[in-house]
Amino acid sequence: MHDRQVVRRRRAALAVLVGLSLVLLTAYFGESPGGTLHAIERGAQEALAPIEEGATRALKPVRDTIGWFGDVLEAKGDNEELRREKEVLQRRLAEAEVAARDAGELRQLVGLPRFTGYPAETEPVTARIIARSPTVWYSAVQIDKGSSSGIREDMPVVAAASDPEGTGGLAGRVVSVTPHTARVILITDAESAVSAQVFPDGANGIVKPEVGRPSDLLLDFIQRGRKVKKGDTVVTSGFRTGDIESLFPRGIPIGTVTKVDPGELELYQKVHVKPFADLRRMNFVQVVTRRGARQEVAEVKAP
Amino acid sequence: MPTPGAGARMTLLILLAVILQVSGLGQIRVLGGNVDLVALLVIGVAFFAGAVPGALCGFFAGFLLDAAIGGNLGASSLVLTAVGYGTGRYAEVRRPAHGLAPLAVTAAASACYVLAFAAVSFMLEVSAAVSAGVLREMAMTVLLNTALALPVFALVRRLLRPVLVVDPFERRRRARTRDAGPLGLRGLEV
What are the C-alpha distances in Å from A163 to residues A84, A132, A159, A242? Predict the structure, then answer.
């Protein structure tokens, strides 16, 4: 008799907890970003932020030490590949310098503002990453700057490259903001999709992640006829159609093409892109604030 | 309800694990994977305290983890509740008292956790392509959790010992002389 009661209570406890989890999940998905559960979430993030920031700083030596061992292992394999890339890049640098000089002259002729990398009329705000999602299924980080620093939802976020002399590039976008923290969904998140353009060909496509391979993005919807090759640069296309505008302004570097898979029976090529930003080990990011454009933006969704 | 002592200890452990996970361990990748300390904690608590405390720990740890990183509230709670309950029931029924039992229990429970979490993620919102690399990541998480099982279990045992109804490792020594009682936390017997 006593055993039956114990079993019943134990099962009831399990049922209550599982039921609560399902209710939470359903309510969370059903409510708007301004709803109660989202507010609780923001409150928890705001409350935990100082502790997370302290822990992030305190644990940095440990992370760096373990990261160093990983770097040594990876560096051996990367060395040969980097030598080849260096040769290609030296050639392309010479071409780019000529093109930049020509472009400068043309800009002067037509009176356009100077543009050297990130979009004009933006002011980057540097922030430290204080928390990071622990699973491969959900790529998000929390940063220690929020609305009090001028950060708003949907602002693009960029990060440095793993190579100190590298360019860095798009890391993600801000999805929620509290006064002193912000949550950033990375371009490797399963839900991410970024409209992009390949240079020099100019082909347009959508950059999407491949879950489980954070250093490899897929550039999809590139028609088979377009000439995309290894080493081409991919940047945000920043399209605007009527009132609909991409979340990301034009010209933020995303990555470099590493492999092109034509696909025998497919209409589109599958292009593999290695992100410029070191999304796995970044400690700081820059939020591209003050876009200078209208705020009516719409999320880019893959067709 | 748990006694204040048991509740405070569980809360402390959950807070510590979540903060360490999102601020430190989540950013350390070893051969493509990383340790999941929160899952490891839930497995440890369930191993020593049984099914209901394990499920409770899983629920609140999952809730705090999702809230801390802005994940889908309820997703981690659901999976960790099930993992905590399952591990706790195994410990109650089989009463593993061998010193290396945490390794086997952690390996099995971590594998269940990563698979269940993948299934929940698929059902919820994953629309992107999934690489085979995700399997390597999941396997690495299981391996790393197993490698860290003994020290984490020792810490959990040390913190929970004053409020444990029965310590499974102590029970091994006493089993010859008297019958072993059920697992649980004082004040949370069901």
Answer: 16, 22, 12, 39
Q: Are A202 and A182 contacting, i.e. CB atoms less than 8 angstroms apart?
A: no
CB within 8 Å: B130 and A210: yes
Q: Is the peptide bond before A200 cis (omega within 30 degrees of 0)?
A: yes
Asked if A172 and A189 count as a contact pair (C-beta separation under 8 A), the reply is yes
**B131 — contact with chain A (CB < 8 Å)?**
yes
Residue B181 CB burial class (10 angstroms; 0-12, 13-18, ≥19): exposed
Where does A111-206 have alpha helices with state H?
Answer: none
CB contact under 8 A, A56 and B23: yes
ipTM exceeds 0.85, yes or no = no
Q: What is the CATH number of domain B4-160?
A: 1.10.1760.20
Q: Which residue has the tokens 């590139």?
A: A222
Q: Which of A166, A136, A156 is nearest to A274 (CA)?
A: A166
User: In angstroms, rounded to a whole number, what is the distance separating the alpha carbons of residues A35 and A245?
Assistant: 26
Cα gap A59→A103, rounded to integer Å: 46
**How does DSSP classify residue B185?**
B
B96-124 in b/e burial notation, b at 16+ Cβ within 10 A? bbeeebbbebbbbbbbbbbebbbebbeee
**Domain residue ranges of chain B, discontinuous segments joined by +:** 4-160
pTM, entire model: 0.72
Q: Where are the beta strands (DSSP E) in chain B?
A: 129-130
B118–A137 CB contact, under 8 Å: yes
Q: Are the beta carbons of A118 and A194 closer than 8 angstroms?
A: no
Q: A158, A288 in Cβ contact below 8 A?
A: yes
User: By three-state DSSP, how is residue A63 classified?
Assistant: helix
Q: Where are the alpha helices (DSSP H) in chain A?
A: 2-30, 36-110
- Write the residue in A20, A41, A63 that is nearest to B59 by C-beta: A20
Q: What is the pLDDT along chain A (303 residues), one digit of tens a residue?
A: 567 888 888 899 999 999 999 999 999 888 888 888 888 888 888 888 888 888 888 887 877 777 777 677 667 667 777 877 787 887 788 778 777 766 665 555 454 444 345 556 667 888 888 888 877 777 889 898 898 888 988 888 988 776 666 667 888 999 889 888 999 999 888 778 888 888 877 788 888 888 777 788 888 887 777 788 888 888 888 776 666 667 788 888 888 888 887 766 667 788 889 888 888 778 888 888 865 443 433 344 443
Chain A residue nearest residue B189, CA to CA: A6
